[in-house]
Design goal:
The chain is 41% helix and 12% strand. The chain has 203 residues and is α/β, with parallel strands linked by helices. Helix 5 (104-120) links the parallel strand 4 (95-97) and strand 5 (129-131).
């Protein structure tokens, strides 16, 4: 690791499921109002400055200007404006879904924003509830459409082929060793989405 590198980042699974977006420093707001869903996303602006711009070292960013067309969100805003946008959106809603305990920094921002809204309304909050969406998202993630099943089966086929190749290579490379305790077996045909990886052990 050199001084220009950053530790790897992985977006939370629920966030990936809802947005398909994996850049860090991102906030997605999904608002359901009058039977319509309105989506907003806050993300890092592009940085192509000639003096060592971030994208030179960290890769291309989607940016605010392209977010709607590339990601399909109704609106996009710079992530540094997230607190003002969050206050504006939360002040017009009655029920908030937020995963408390997942990110302490953002927990503090949300709670601070809710407190400001309470203060502006003289302690009578327009928000009637704060709920955790994780159980609902987990249930939704179990439902797969045809395209998702096709992708999962393709991924399983790749993993199975890798497992067969790995087992064969190990057996050929170690002819003087004792046979594998549990040789690889193909998955049953009625379970095409199994991902099989061998546990290679020898003495």
């Amino acid at each position: 690791r050199n001084f220009d590198a950053h530790y790897p980042f992985r977006a939370p699974s629920d966030f990936l499921y809802l947005t398909g977006f994996s850049e860090p420093e991102t906030l997605a707001i999904l608002k359901y109002d009058n039977g319509k869903l309105k989506t907003s996303i806050g993300l890092r602006p592009r940085d192509l400055s000639p003096n060592r711009g971030s994208e030179i070292w960290e890769g291309e960013r989607v940016g605010v200007e392209r977010a709607s067309s590339v990601l399909g969100f109704d609106e996009a805003f710079p992530i540094h404006e997230s607190l003002s946008v969050l206050e504006k959106e939360l002040s017009k809603t009655r029920l908030v879904f937020w995963s408390l305990g997942f990110d302490r920094e953002w927990d503090d921002k949300v709670i601070t924003t809710l407190s400001k809204i309470d203060a502006k309304n003289r302690g009578i909050s327009p928000i009637h509830g704060l709920l955790d969406p994780r159980s609902a998202i987990a249930a939704a993630r179990k439902v797969k459409d045809t395209d998702e099943i096709t992708v999962m089966r393709h991924a399983a086929a790749i993993a199975s082929a890798m497992a067969r190749s790995l087992t064969t290579c190990v057996q050929r490379a170690l002819p003087h060793r004792r046979p594998l305790r549990r040789p690889w077996q193909p998955p049953p045909p009625h379970l095409p989405m199994w991902i099989v990886l061998p546990c290679v052990k020898w003495r």
